[in-house]
Design goal:
Strand content: 15-25%
CATH architecture: 3-Layer(aba) Sandwich
Number of domains: 1
Number of strands: 3
Number of helices: 3
Shape: globular
Radius of gyration: 17 Å
Largest sheet: 3 strands, parallel
CATH superfamily: Vaccinia Virus protein VP39
InterPro entries: SAM-dependent_MTases_sf
Distance between the termini: 49 Å
Helix content: 55-70%
Oligomer: single chain
Length: 88
Amino acid sequence: MRPSKLEYKIVKLFHTHTKILNNLHNQYIKHVCENGGDILEIGFGGGVTADMIQNYNIKTHTIIERDDYFFETLYLLCLKRTHTFLGI
């Protein structure tokens, strides 16, 4: 079954919007991390930003996460990475 024109436009808009946000997100992370140093991240969520930050030559990466589920996911990521992580 073929989607209606309205459904198609919503999906197309969503993908375009997501692409723009991803580009802004990438530029923001690059700007924050390009000089290295100590990075403080508030909220781990799905870990997308944490993964991006870890690709830069940083000194430390501290993440504050209050949700137990996401904190456990954060802990598992810490075991895989070489940069210093401090989960609070």
